[in-house]
Amino acid sequence: MSVVVEKWDRFEIEFAGPAEGNPFTEVKLSAAFRHGDTKIEVSGFYDGEGRYRLRFMPEQEGEWNFATRSSAASLDGIEGSFSCVQSRKGNHGPVRVRDRFHFQYADGKAYFPFGTTCYAWIHQSAELQELTLKTLEASPFNKIRMCVFPKHYDYNHDEPELYPFPGSPGTGFDFTRFDPAYFRHLEKRILDLQALGIECDLIIFHPYDRWGFSDMGQETDERYLRYLVSRLSAFRNLWWSMANEYDLFLRDDGSLKKDTDEWDRLARIVQGQDPHAHLRSIHNCLKLYDHAKSWVTHASIQRVDHYKTAENAAEWRAVYGKPVVIDECAYEGNINHGWGNIPGQEMARRFWEGCVRGGYVGHGETYVHPRDILWWSHGGELHGSSPERIAFLRNIVENAPAPLEPVLKPAASLFDPNWDVALGRAGDGYSLYYFGFCQPAFRVFDLDAKENYRVEIIDTWEMTIRELEGSFSGKFRVELPGKPYIAVRITRVD
Amino acid sequence: MSVVVEKWDRFEIEFAGPAEGNPFTEVKLSAAFRHGDTKIEVSGFYDGEGRYRLRFMPEQEGEWNFATRSSAASLDGIEGSFSCVQSRKGNHGPVRVRDRFHFQYADGKAYFPFGTTCYAWIHQSAELQELTLKTLEASPFNKIRMCVFPKHYDYNHDEPELYPFPGSPGTGFDFTRFDPAYFRHLEKRILDLQALGIECDLIIFHPYDRWGFSDMGQETDERYLRYLVSRLSAFRNLWWSMANEYDLFLRDDGSLKKDTDEWDRLARIVQGQDPHAHLRSIHNCLKLYDHAKSWVTHASIQRVDHYKTAENAAEWRAVYGKPVVIDECAYEGNINHGWGNIPGQEMARRFWEGCVRGGYVGHGETYVHPRDILWWSHGGELHGSSPERIAFLRNIVENAPAPLEPVLKPAASLFDPNWDVALGRAGDGYSLYYFGFCQPAFRVFDLDAKENYRVEIIDTWEMTIRELEGSFSGKFRVELPGKPYIAVRITRVD
After folding, report:
1. Residue B77, Cβ neighbours under 10 Å: how many?
2. What is the CATH number of domain A4-85?
3. Does B100 touch chain A (CB under 8 A)?
4. CATH 3.20.20.80 region(s) of chain A?
5. Could you say which of B334, B342, B438 has the minimum Cβ distance to residue A441?
6. Exposed, middle or buried, B265 (CB in 10 Å: 0-12/13-18/19+)?
7. Which of A307, A413, A440 sits opposite B307 (nearest CB)?
8. What is the pLDDT of residues B89-109, one digit of tens each?
9. Whole-prediction pTM value?
10. Nearest in space to B456 (alpha carbons), one of B431, B425, B436, B435
11. If you classify domain A95-398 with CATH, what class do you get?
12. B343 touches chain A (CB under 8 A)
């Protein structure tokens, strides 16, 4: 009998080993996985009660062999094998960078991130977690930003059911051990997301903390990273977000809990430990990280200006030379916090502004709720008007012949009326113009006179697409609705 | 019998003189006006048909004497006098800078510019000009940007009835002479505006030109400036705008018709020639002028970013140390040009964003019209939704106890929810908060616990002001409408 594992699925094997002492710190376990000339080193982890595990995500079909090494004799030199078979429908593998500014699954299928944010949804009641999954299933979102650690902040004062380390807020935590139940719960939720086709953009550290998890010291941070990566890297729908708001890790005396060098060091530990090279980034509050650094696979950006956000996508692409994900462009909602009360129109507009510039934008929602259940942190239900429009946009983006690339205009001038429009192209036969809050009643287009074009007027708020009769060529005038949030899609007719 | 002139009104005297040759270039005329120890040199001008004029705006009450000097014997050594008396109601004198960032009339009355733009309204049909004046009378606008020269641009292809120089587009123009009828018409319109309490922000040069007026050469430019200033500086409701879009004066070969040094030189001619020190500025297209220069009395700004405009007012105040007038923040309308199709909501928002930051914003309108009559250039009627809201704002600003000064916030942080709000103060007992496109459902204010405050919720779009019952003190929560375009006015109750 041979073990069979689907490509990009998880091979997992459990061993019995020493339970005495502190296995988390005292026992080392790793394995080499081999396939032809390929050899991949993988770390195992202690899962409590004398159980040790190895996880591996095969990326090549065929026969794989492994052999363990361990500081514990009972775990050392164990050999085994499994067959990696073709992936089934729905399993496209992990997401990788494509064509410098975009993404695709490992099987080549394009992936366009339309993410949302529920920082602490896995730390809410079981009932609420199930509701969140149900909401996500019906939503347009294919990525979620969420934290490993529980969250302490306005609207977030409940204690979580579990903690990542043994102990409690009253007695303190034993940072030399982990609570495997905590991580098993996290893993279950990652798999729940995987079943829904949702990437988990996992936030490894965050500053909203009353338990000390944001300032555990280098040794504990490193042990935590190695443990986390050993447990999770075999999950294909995983992205590593080193931090939420890396620049807000401040102690009461104003000193930094982790400076930029430390973030780089921690990120390189993740990079070195992860045999499957999941996407890696780090998220800012006030100051963008230098996403040009080699360990960063894509820019993960919170807007730094209240007014101008996703309109910067093309500039950020140029600066970093990487995919730009503006995964926090403010929240649709009406709470007191200035980052959490933009209307659905403005959220949808930011998505469009970013997308036609070849970037990607993330959603979040913070409506006042009678029981303080805000999607942004707790999950639950969506109440806003933007998700429906984001679904509409996602459909357009996914049906374009290629990822959108921004057409950079020369500075607006006396002679160019197009100050108001952002233009994305998907190949030279597909143009998507977006007018944002402007309301032109018409526009003259000047295209190739030797080609014929189909013209469609898209009302991005009403979610209608109206094709103009006939085909167009050369210079032509298009009547527009004269209201905000209009796009024009022009496709070459071959 | 003695001549009596109201303070800040126009003393004008006509002399017969030589009509032969070219009096515009050949005859020099000036006068010294004296009042006690005050002596002011004023240039006269040739008004055609052997008539010469001297104009003067007395700024001190009492007896004034004058004596002419001229290269023509018949105009030389003429003496006279007049009495300057107290100004009547409605005559507050010219507008000056007040408290570094604001304006007031010469009599000390505060002046808050709420301007509009009709570049070429005086070059339209007489009927349309009268309609424009009628519209202005009912409007909230107390300043208008308008050009001396006719305008050539999209929607602007008609020939004007008159030209500033003798000649025609077919035969060419004699740049060594002026057509006094042209300037008399301009003066009539300036007086019409004065009667309506409207400042004329007169654009001396502009680039939208098919007649050659934007590239006449230094000698003609200078003669034109001296002639213009001699004719107009005695009009109290006059501001000098050296150029509209100074940075678009380009020849076909790409060379500059006037560079920055030349603009400075020309501005200093105006400054030196104008005995009444009217306000002076210059207006950009793509690149802001260096408004810190000494001849500039206030910044005159066209927004250089499509998305973020009046939100920069406080930064620009800090950079230039002068009043900031964002007199072109885009146009409410729906034309094809990207600068000319923002909705009324966005125009009104820009006014508020600028005003609460201690700046001033200008209006313009460009709605598609069956006969191509667009307020922006031609005047006529207003069709938009912003003027009514601008009137509402003007009333609020004019009834504040002092001009609004921006409260500069520290960078948005984890602990400050007020990312979304701009705050202006008029003295320490009056605060005006503006939430722009954000829609908070409530906000907690933290004010002096020893004082009592009145709180009013202002819906800037619906134009309602609702005072909350009771008085407030210390830290208190205010329920807000949870929709965009809301302001909160908090006034200390003494």
Report:
1. 10
2. 2.60.40.10
3. no
4. 95-398
5. B334
6. middle
7. A307
8. 999 999 999 999 999 999 999
9. 0.96
10. B431
11. alpha beta
12. yes
Q: What are phi and psi of B211, to 5 degrees?
A: -105, -10
CA B98 to chain CA centroid, Å, is 15
Residue B410's pLDDT band (boundaries 50, 70, 90)? low
Structure token pair of residue A139: 């939503």
Q: What is the pLDDT of residue A111?
A: 98
The CATH architecture that domain A407-493 belongs to is: Sandwich (2.60)
- Looking up tokens 């700024």, which residue turns up? B59
Given a contact cutoff of 8 angstroms between Cβ atoms, the answer to whether A413 and A462 are in contact is no
DSSP string, A178-246: --HHHHHHHHHHHHHHHHTT-EEEEEEE-S--SSSTT---HHHHHHHHHHHHHHHTT-TTEEEEEESSG
Q: Which amino acid is at A323?
A: P
B313-361: pLDDT as tens digits: 999 999 999 999 999 999 999 999 999 999 999 999 999 999 999 999 9
H/E element, A460: none
What six digits make up the tokens of B149? 């020269």
Using a CB-CB cut-off of 8 Å, the residues of chain A touching B346 are: 437
d(CA A17, CA A75): 6
* Domain B411-493: CATH class, spelled out: mainly beta
**A457: helix, strand or coil:** strand
pLDDT at B409 over 80: no
Classify residue B90 as exposed, middle or buried by CB count within 10 Å of its CB (0-12, 13-18, 19+): exposed
Which of helix, strand or coil describes residue B456?
strand
Q: Do A414 and B285 touch (CB under 8 A)?
A: yes
The reply to whether B256 touches chain A by the CB within 8 Å rule is no
| Residue A405, phi-psi category: left (phi > 0), alpha (psi -120 to 50), beta (remainder) | beta
Q: Tally Cβ neighbours within 10 Å of residue A253.
A: 5
Instruction: Determine the pLDDT at residue B415.
Output: 54
Query: DSSP labels for A411-446?
Result: PP-TT--GGG-EEEESSTTEEEEE-TT---SEEEEE
Chain A contact present for B441, CB below 8 A: yes
